[in-house]
Design a protein that fits this description.
Blueprint lengths: L2 H6 L2 H13 L8 H13 L3 E2 L8 E6 L7 E7 L26 H17 L7 E7 L7 H7 L10 E12 L3 E2 L3 E4 L2 E9 L3 E2 L9 H11 L1 H7 L6 E10 L5 E2 L2 E10 L2 H21 L3 E10 L2 E3 L1 H15 L4 E2 L12 H6 L3 E9 L20 H17 L3
Parallel strand pairs: 3-4, 3-5, 5-16, 6-15
Antiparallel strand pairs: 1-2, 2-4, 6-16, 7-14, 8-12, 8-13, 9-11, 10-12
Helix pairs in contact: 2-4, 4-11, 6-8, 9-11
Length: about 400
Amino acid sequence: MDIRSLVAENAEAMVHWRHSIHASPELGFKEFETTKLVARELSSAGIELRPLEAETGVLGILKGGQGRGPVIVLRADMDALPMEEETGVPWSSQNPGVMHACGHDGHTSVLLGAAKTLAALKDRLRGEIRFLFQPAEETLYGARKMIEAGVLESPPADYVMGLHGSPLAEVGQVAVLRGPVMASADMFTVTFSADGGHGAYPHRTRDPIVAAGHFITSVQEIVSRQVNTLDSAVVSVCAVEAGTAYNIIPKNAVLKGTIRTLREEVRGEMEARLQEKVEGVAKTFGCQWNLDFIHGIPSVSNDDAMVDRLYRAAGTVLGNENVVDPVRPLMGSEDFAFYGEIVPQSLFFQLGFVEPGEPIIHLHNSKFDFNDKALVPGASVFCQFVWDLLGNGQ
């Protein structure tokens, strides 16, 4: 079965879908037009649409004609970012202040192409394929919404698989790792409080800004001195709010930041260590303190057996030399992690889009545009993976 040739028959359509979606980007939970486009194309391929208790998002169901078998969920995200586009391409965003700077237009088009191809092979497949088009990945809450809507149930999913376009690999390649591949993401807000006073007489009050400054320095010791050097962790203070004038010591200093880890054991220690730092600094500088710690999303981790399957499938359609090891995990986060918590046999891989010899424009850049040449390779990997699992009886 020449899967890649079958996928290539939909190449022109995939490019058309991507350009249409790119020109009409929509923010998380507002992907109304994208939802309509996806639902329309799935229906035209004879794929059943399962109703979801959500305003945006689509779940297509394809049941193989060869009878019962495993259930695999293929997932793509659909939302854009609140950015002004500066690509200058003919299909540039028509929605001011919103653009597809993370490649979700490409992800959606890849999965649509895979759905069209697999629908044509329906009678030669067993089991069930679910095509999940998820809203609001950028908010890190879209996956939870889909899980609550039952996309992994009735019957329970056996496998779940997703991808992300990546500057870590060239177009025509995929990159995959075993174990942790993307970090967990937790957030915190720290507030130091005192009486406030005149900037000329700091000895008459306590200064929450000084406390905040020492906290920013001190908190870095968590990673450098309290986390095993062989483990990865990041603590970043990303916002500081304090004061209104040049001569007034304010009553409050508020700091906001993020914590990223790859291992749950490390993640579980971070809140307590952060609180120790806040308490110690507050006591030293005579301030009151408050810590609001928000548990966000877990790390994305790949199942070993799924990675083995990916190597075989991608090797078949792309060539073994085009399945590469990205060397290290990413400290960015992805709400795909929530699916992996429920379905242990999960896989998240990177789809290369870099043109050899060309400058790399990274994700979340106002000049980023997903490479159309990556559409067929991405859909081919999805389809070959499913064919190996549900078509060949492996």
